[in-house]
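Hey, resending since the last one bounced:
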Amino acid sequence: MNYRSVYETWLASPALSQAEKAELLAIQGDEKEIESRFFAPLEFGTAGLRGTMYTGLHHMNLHVIRHATQAFAEVILAEGDNTAERGVAVCYDCRNQSDSFARETACVMAGNGIRVYLFDALRPTPELSFAVREYGCIAGVNVTASHNPKEYNGYKVYWEDGAQLPPHHASAIAKKMEEIDFFGGIKRMDYDEAVKAGRITLLGAETDEKFLSNVMGQVNDRACVEQVADTFKMVYTPFHGTGYKLIPEALRRLGIKHLICEPKQMVIDGDFPTVASPNPENPEGFYLAVELANQEGADFILGSDPDADRVGLMVRSPDGSFVPLTGNQTGVLLLDYLIGAKKRFHSMPEHPAALKTIVTTEMARKVAETNGMACYDTFTGFKFMAEKKNQLEAAGTGKVIFSYEESYGYMLGDYVRDKDAVTAALVLTEMAAWYAGQNMTLYDALQALYTKYGYYSERTMNLVMPGLDGLAKMKALMDNLRANPPADIAGVHVKIRKDYSDGTQIDTATGAQSAMELKGSNVLRYELEDGTSLIVRPSGTEPKVKVYILAQGADKASCDAQVAQYAVWAEGLKN
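The structure tokens again:
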């Protein structure tokens, strides 16, 4: 069926509201717009679905949610007799339509005879991961587009360990979606009837308290907070999102007396009126928090994204201005702090380990190994970190104390299997207070780590390739790099080439080929003579190819020069 036929089918469907039909009638003369909405369904991957909110097959709306949920329900029921009663946890964030999308998810699950644990209001992503594990659910769904702009929403799917869906289950759902009639194949139960029948159970404050109890168990050194409590000031912003309640509560329980929340951004609003993009990776979004910190004399600013799985920091520099810490820098600081705190309190487990992704700074490995701790790489995504954590701990070969990736995600403890801004905010604040007790800001602390472990610098380049031909351009770029592998990059010889699709590593000097532990992901890595690593991979959720530059050198200037040199090569890949 071509896109025009699909458009006509949607227009004729009684499932559409009058407003939805009016939206589609308004574009009937715009062939390009009709094609963009109906040329193909949103692709269901291991991260679920994500897209802009419009009526159409290739966008996020109630009908796409129902269709995906029906497919997910059938995959769940195929797992065994008790899966329906084990149930599914459903959560949502602050975005426009998130609450209705979550309710529809619950209604379709209930219509398929599956028990649902639905949060009574918006909650952080890590609490959904926790609820899946706490209530013994077979799966979970979180309606969120994380840190994307306001036009987006998403449908994140989780399995029984609390981690995002493994690839074979995602493939099974995608296959079911191809088989199920889009409008006619949906089983749905009325919401009020499902609640009355006990098929939908609402989760509220009791689950918050269980989650927070686990979060507070991650405190290492409460005394260091008490020592500076009268003078330590910090600013927090949830960027209009779900961190607004539990993060301040956790910090108050930690003992923070001077917690100053940015009032405009504490207001829940899916339009994110104070920021262009609610992403703590973008320092410009912190402008209100910086103004407040300067007024109040705070040295530490913490912000969480709308679904409270990512956290970003701004710290005061020697000239008095606030500067952002990258996700790489924050992770290195936190890893080094955790090692020190656990050694001070004799709480370091046997065979401690840290996890990072293949695109995360190599400084993390240096910190871990210098302190006698193992450090393992995984593919990008916390489902892979969860898989590695489960594997190491089940075998008794390692106890993971910290996992992180460069995109501002951190995982601690055993009660979640996803990035967790609530717990990270707690331990990062404890760390900032500990350094304040040493008369150091986190800026000072980072410089001390560079002196101790060596200088590292990183940059992530986003080669955006939008439109209908974007996927083809991304594929052509990767195909060309495989067909014509570079012998040198920006004039520097490539020593090692790694292709994570088939797990092969090639020594360019000898041509010797060896197998790597990691394989099955469309990622290329080049390790150069000067110690720099370059990684190229297509994004799994957005129309862009990412290029990661990981440099190390004698000092900051040499590292920054390397990053700038290779950024020019990365930009050239678009041509």
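Residues 327-344 form the longest helix (18 residues).

Sorry for the duplicate.
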